[in-house]
Amino acid sequence: MSGIGKVAEALELPCKYCSLGCMEIFPYYRKLKHEAQCNFRPYNCPYPGSECSVVGDIPFLVGHLRENHKVDMHIGSTFNHLYVKSNPREVDNAARMLMVFNCYSQYFCLHFEAFLLGMAPVYITFLRFMGDAVEARKFGYRLEVGANGRKLIWEGTPRSIRDSDQKVRDSHDGLIIQRSMALFFSGGDRKQLKLRVAGRIWKENSN
Question: Under which EC number(s) is this enzyme classified (predicted)?
Fold first, then answer.
């Protein structure tokens, strides 16, 4: 190893996110690897799709979602929301919707998306926690859709917004509803999506 390499190996540097709270100090060669996974690194904007490159802490992103993406903000741990789409045969990015809930002094993102599961058009709805995965595991949630004597229910743990909405969707970690069933739940002539999603968020027991 060259003299410069030995100096670099011996050099210890603070994480570049030290101003955000990280107190770790690493040898030069381990610093970059740590920073890619540092719990104090800024979060990416959780708005569906990868077009938005904004990063920041949670309070900043909440304001960003409200002001720049015009996302609906709600207070409370229960919800009952009606998704309406006039042309449910479209399966594209336009069929992505997001709502944010403030409860337990935390923020949660409720996603509703259309995509193709193989060749089958489906909808998926899931919850992401605005924080890291360790904190996310302190909460649980339930989603429910139904009508005409039929009901679909999902219970799970919210994923952290460290995981993109596409990653959550592709892992099928949420309530998946076939389009034919979604239109059945919508009633009427089944040509318009009117799907009511009810749910609640709770804090898991810490014992």
Answer: 2.3.2.27
